[in-house]
Amino acid sequence: MQFTINRQAFIKALNNVNRAISSRTAMPILTNIKMILTDTGLTLTGSDTDISIETTIPVSDDIAKLVVTEVGGITLPATFFSNIVKRLPGEEVTLANTSGLEAKITSGSAEFDIHGQDVNNYPHLPEVDIQNNLILPASTLIEVIGQTVIAVSKQLSQPILTGVHFILASGNLTAVATDRHRLAQRTLAFGTSDVNADIIIPGASLLQLQGMLEEVETVEIRVASNQVIFQLGPNTIFYSRLLEGNYPDASRLIPTEKRTTITINARELLQTIDRAALLSHEGRSNVIQFMVSDAKSMISSNSPEVGKIEEEIFAAETAGDELTISFNPDYMRDALKSFGDEQIQIGFKTALDPFTLVPTNNETNFIQLITPVRTY
């Protein structure tokens, strides 16, 4: 095989497929990038068996300026090869593999020879039977992922909770994640549709996908029995395995009663929490307190080893019983970041019950829930 391509366009494609490649794999060839060159374009593939990404650079791409000299295929060490391409001096790069499994890479005055592996030994991408498909704006999917993936569990002892539960039914999409200490749930309507699916997508897959959505306008989501496929524009496909099992009924965690409420700007409260967390992180417990009353509401943190901080917060509205509650500031910060500059209502039942954060307009059907910390 032999081709010449614009180096920056090539780097962009390499960065995409590298998202699916892990240095920790039981199959050494999966640390490589697979490249197949045809008369119509260059296809790059990366996979760690959980995630697979395939992107094609067509010869018709005016930016990539791909010139095909000889068709063929090879796999090359992903990290090493990508680092070489990023550091080449010229605007174009030429790769030639004319015999055996050695590739010659040239650009400007630089020339590299690196060893590859037989492309026929690279596992094939999963063949799936599509059961449902749905098209969403990429910006919507970015928002849904960002608002929910923060609550997935990091504990591999609870594998089902390391994913986000997506339910598609009756023209609505509901995404929910919980690690049993907090919960994030977002519901949106996508119009009249007969799409029905109940799937759990690993949080790690969604984070990699989120990083690829910025430059596409729409995403086609295809659901199969054990895979979900995201078509990102005409040339890139993102595959993710699905988690198996039954996701817990998260709706039971959401309290229906609020005895105390406070309405406040999310960004302003986040700044206060950030300041209090400076002290709580230095202490042993990493806990801050929230005292809510009609007269005055306060955020405080007290660490015998470090010191104490108190700051009054100015709410737009406070109603209900006076309450003092303790919580992990990192959970609170993650939740507040997901609202941006919105006005939110925080609802409390008691100092020992989970509390909720929702936008005051509630047009996004979005809820964050945090479980308090017992301090006695």
UniProtKB/TrEMBL annotation:
Family stated for the protein in its record: Belongs to the beta sliding clamp family.
Gene Ontology process terms (BP): DNA strand elongation involved in DNA replication
Sorted UniProt keywords: Cytoplasm, DNA replication, DNA-binding, DNA-directed DNA polymerase, Nucleotidyltransferase, Transferase
Summary of subunit composition and partner proteins: Forms a ring-shaped head-to-tail homodimer around DNA.
Domain DNA polymerase III beta sliding clamp central per the UniProt entry, residue ranges: 136-249
Predominant subcellular localization, coarse grouping: cytoplasm
Domain named DNA polymerase III beta sliding clamp C-terminal: residues: 252-373
Compartment list: Cytoplasm
Example of a GO cellular component annotation carried by this entry: cytoplasm
Protein name as annotated: Beta sliding clamp
Domain DNA polymerase III beta sliding clamp N-terminal: 1-126
Pfam family, any one: DNA_pol3_beta
SUPFAM superfamilies per UniProt: DNA clamp
UniProt-listed NCBIfam families: dnan
Molecular function terms from GO: 3'-5' exonuclease activity; DNA binding; DNA-directed DNA polymerase activity
Function as written in the Swiss-Prot or TrEMBL entry: Confers DNA tethering and processivity to DNA polymerases and other proteins. Acts as a clamp, forming a ring around DNA (a reaction catalyzed by the clamp-loading complex) which diffuses in an ATP-independent manner freely and bidirectionally along dsDNA. Initially characterized for its ability to contact the catalytic subunit of DNA polymerase III (Pol III), a complex, multichain enzyme responsible for most of the replicative synthesis in bacteria; Pol III exhibits 3'-5' exonuclease proofreading activity.
